[in-house]
Specification:
Blueprint lengths: L1 H39 L5 E5 L2 E9 L4 E5 L7 H4 L1 H7 L4 E5 L16 H14 L6 E6 L2 H11 L4 E7 L4 H6 L8 H9 L2 H5 L3 H7 L11 H14 L3 H8 L1 H9 L5 E10 L7 H9 L4 E9 L11 H12 L3
Parallel strand pairs: 3-4, 3-5, 5-6, 6-7, 7-8
Antiparallel strand pairs: 1-2, 2-4
Protein name: Alpha/beta fold hydrolase
Keywords: Hydrolase
Organism: Cohnella soli
Length: 324
């Protein structure tokens, strides 16, 4: 009996050592891959100094109005994500896609992700990049909070806001559950290269894009950028802090100016007929945030509706941009 115990003990020790060696090899593989990715992951737009760090803005188009894009939480590369929209808008309006710290090509920062800090940074980045207000903001998902707060603080700079399945401040404040984060296990999988190995599979990559309609309207070269961005930006401190502070940030917005004296268009996904009832109720009530508001339920779309119906979303943006 003792002999078997010794054998089992030795087997357990050798097994543990083997796991540690494999994890170590994986960590080296991950570090080498990250260094390689960073060399090829060059900014699509330009970097501007904001509070001592570099913040990315991609701008283009032509016209008298500037449309500014605010990405949703966890969208690794906004430049890729909003391509189906700004590609359609470019002949009619100027546009600017900014990357919050922790996203896209921007640095990470040590500053807390409270809503006033975020809007200060956006204001500074737009100014540094030469954008001219008034702006039409287009906000996806959690990006709704920063655009409303921007309009509260810099009212004269905002012509209107289009929400692309953006949540209302009441929705985010009502969400009292602790926001999920990756945790230590997620960090372990990332830092030991397990996630990167998984992304070598076409099936895994396609699955990661499923909620975004497979990036159907995005060129292949931008899909490669999206994959690299996901591996470089996954589970970073700024994204996690942004999510942790979402309820606190919503309260700040709720305590600010309401209703806004600007047009507000609320585009709501129908989730292919399976929308959550709570979400639908908050979206209907969202109209109270503006003296000129309308809601449009966009059929046959999910949360990233601009990846399903970029034509319709672009039409609504232009309608607001040139509204008198």
């Amino acid at each position: 009996m003792r002999k078997w115990r010794r054998r089992l003990g030795k087997a357990a020790i050798f097994g543990l050592l083997a796991v540690l060696v494999l994890l170590g090899i994986g960590a080296i593989y991950e570090q080498a891959s990250v260094r390689k990715d960073r060399k090829s992951y060059t900014p699509s737009g330009k970097l501007y100094e904001v509070d001592g760090r570099k913040m990315h803005v991609y701008a283009g188009g032509q016209g008298d109005v500037t449309v500014v894009f605010a990405s949703g939480w966890g969208t690794a590369n906004p430049y890729v994500d909003f391509y189906p929209l700004y590609e359609k808008l470019a002949p009619h309006v100027k546009f600017a896609v900014y990357d919050r710290f922790g996203y896209g090509y921007s640095d990470t920062t040590d500053r807390k992700r409270d809503i006033d800090t975020i809007t200060d940074e956006i204001h500074e980045a737009l100014k540094a990049s030469g954008q001219q207000p008034p702006y039409v903001f287009v906000a996806h998902s959690l990006g709704s909070l920063e655009t409303i707060r921007y309009a509260q603080r810099y009212t004269d700079e905002v012509k209107g806001i289009v929400m692309v399945d953006g949540g209302s401040p009441e929705y985010y404040f009502d969400d009292t559950e602790k926001p999920p984060t990756g945790g230590w296990l997620s960090k372990l999988f990332i830092r030991t290269g397990l996630v990167r190995l998984l992304f070598q599979s076409d099936a895994a990559v396609e699955n990661s894009r499923a909620a975004r309609n497979g990036l159907k309207f995005v060129p292949d070269e931008l899909k490669k950028i999206d994959r690299t961005a996901a591996l470089l930006k996954l589970d970073n401190a700024n994204m996690n802090d942004e999510l942790r502070l979402s309820r606190t940030n919503a309260k700040v917005v709720l305590d600010g100016l309401k209703p806004l004296p600007i047009p507000l268009t609320i585009l709501t996904a129908d989730y292919f007929g399976k929308a959550d009832k709570r979400w639908e109720e908050f979206e209907k009530a969202f109209a109270s945030w503006s003296v000129q508001s309308k809601q449009v339920v966009v059929k046959n779309t999910e949360h990233y509706m601009h990846q399903y119906r970029p034509d319709l979303v672009a039409e609504e943006i232009l309608a607001l941009a040139y509204k008198r």
